[in-house]
């Protein structure tokens, strides 16, 4: 696991000329990092773009592979938006003393092993832990113990019976629905990971998580043709649609004929061959949950 980010001033990471330039900036914002334990204060000028702010945050974290990341913010109605990196910040959000952004993974690589830098993999690992905890990443029951064990191995290293007493997994909130039975299975799986370094445990976690349908799924609530509420989102595999806690469509990109929109209406046209498949098999309500 990469070293924790130091507590030094964010501005201390820039040269004296850069500091003098930043010091003259007239708008302030707070950025929450992916591990939730740290926020940084940033300043920007009226004409600065979203890319400038994202660059500041990535430089703070020593992240070079910036294209995977984005900054999110909420409007007064709690609607979430991505900060457009090509547009001026001041044209997207109103300056205020409480202006806050959140660093998030915006583009999930289909194969996490293509990521070159360990620090970038670690940030993706943190994002997927969030997705798992909040129910956006659905983990099949038969995979949950292994996935949880990789997280524990990353956090604690090898299992040590003198340190890891009964129930130690319960100190970590890993899943949206976490039971004592699951925690016992995670503890058993953790014992079998002896010798796996934190970085290797995180990579194994990424490889397994990237195989799930909801890997990278960012659900948005919309109305269907019958005015019912559904969740829709895209992944590297295609378009996912959930109704309540039931997956009703998973349209792979190869099965998609076209997509268009008119005003606020968004239309998806699958190929005729898609409708030959079983579109919505019964799903146990306890197995597929999204928040």
UniProtKB/TrEMBL annotation:
It holds the Pfam family FERM_C. This is Moesin/ezrin/radixin homolog 1. Its main location: other. It is found in: Cell junction, Adherens junction; Cell projection, Rhabdomere. One of its GO terms (biological process) is actomyosin structure organization. Coiled coil: none annotated. Residues 27-291 form the FERM domain. PROSITE patterns: FERM_1, FERM_3. It comes from Plectus sambesii.
């Amino acid at each position: 696991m990469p070293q924790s980010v130091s507590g030094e001033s964010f501005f201390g990471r820039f040269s004296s000329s850069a500091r003098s330039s930043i010091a003259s900036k007239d708008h302030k914002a707070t950025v929450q990092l992916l591990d939730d334990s740290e926020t940084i204060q940033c300043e920007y000028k009226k004409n600065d773009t979203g890319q400038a702010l994202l660059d500041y945050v990535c430089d703070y974290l020593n992240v070079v592979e910036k294209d995977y990341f984005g900054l999110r913010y909420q409007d007064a109605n709690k609607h979430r938006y991505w900060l457009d990196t090509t547009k001026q910040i001041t044209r997207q959000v109103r300056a205020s003393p409480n202006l806050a952004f959140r660093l998030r993974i915006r583009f999930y690589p289909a194969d996490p092993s293509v990521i070159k830098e360990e620090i970038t993999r670690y940030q993706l690992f943190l994002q997927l832990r969030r997705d798992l905890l909040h129910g956006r990443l659905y983990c099949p029951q038969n995979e949950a113990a292994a996935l949880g064990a990789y997280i524990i191995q990353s956090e604690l290293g090898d299992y040590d019976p003198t340190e890891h007493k009964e129930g130690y997994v319960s100190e970590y909130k890993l899943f949206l629905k976490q039971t004592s039975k699951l925690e016992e299975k995670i503890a058993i799986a953790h014992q079998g990971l002896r010798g796996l370094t934190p970085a290797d445990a995180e990579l194994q976690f990424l490889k397994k998580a990237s195989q799930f349908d909801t890997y990278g799924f960012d659900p948005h609530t919309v109305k269907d043709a019958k005015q019912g509420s559904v969740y829709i989102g895209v992944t590297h595999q295609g378009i996912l649609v959930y109704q309540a806690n039931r997956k009703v469509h998973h349209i792979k990109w190869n099965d998609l004929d076209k997509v268009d929109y008119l005003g606020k209406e968004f239309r998806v046209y699958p190929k005729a061959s898609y409708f030959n498949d079983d579109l919505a098999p019964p799903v146990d309500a306890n197995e597929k949950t999204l928040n």
